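DATA SHEET
Item: assembly model
Revision: 1
Owner: S.N.
Input lines:
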Amino acid sequence: MPSDWLTLQFDNTLDALSDALTAIEAHGEAENWPMKWLFNTNLAIDELVSNIIKYGYADDARHEIAIALFRVDDMLAVMVRDDSAAFDPFEDAPEPDTDLSIEDRPIGGLGVHLVKTLVDDVRYRRVDDRNEITLIQRAAA
Amino acid sequence: MSLEIKDERVDDALVIIPVGRVDSRTAGEFETHVIGAITNGEKKILFDLSELVYLSSAGLRVLLMAAKRLRGGGKLAVCSMSDGIRQVFEIGGFTKILPIKKDRADAFGTW
């Protein structure tokens, strides 16, 4: 029964996020994750955590972001915890209209939509002044 | 992991080849490069994504900015994308607004 896990903590900077993504990708490759998991996990964490870093903090202080990844058989769970402002990206972010023409289409706003579509299940809860996001992926049946 | 951007001239077209990943950290560099090319007068731009490993919404954003600026007199196409990146284009609704070509020959043969 293949199972593996990885936990990471890093500061709220895009450089630290990039290093974390590199570490996650190296872990997934070493554990022979399906290509789909490698791509979607990288993308989902980049989209969600970069939003947290760019928009979630009212001060300039250093904050810690924690990520835990657990794989059991054909299921991968990714959890992200941070102490930024309360925000449920899956409910509070506006849905983009992906049918608009080039002229009418606003710049930006697609990140959360990509995550919701690429990942099998997304959850959010606020626990003890922290945001907790869970992403569930299953290997293709 | 980071991003390197290569340019190639093919007749009156500029082929931009991003190598590596366009994500939240590298999209600013990609934007500066692409918008700089348009500001310098490039009118036909083909994005060859054959060496691109990841593209996030931050990368789609730059392509949309370029497409808006090249409307009316300019041309923009994208070619040679991996299955993962194609999925990002499809979910973002970008296959409906940008010409997606199989490879360079397909792109240059039809635009």
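QC remark: Chain A has a mean pLDDT of 95.
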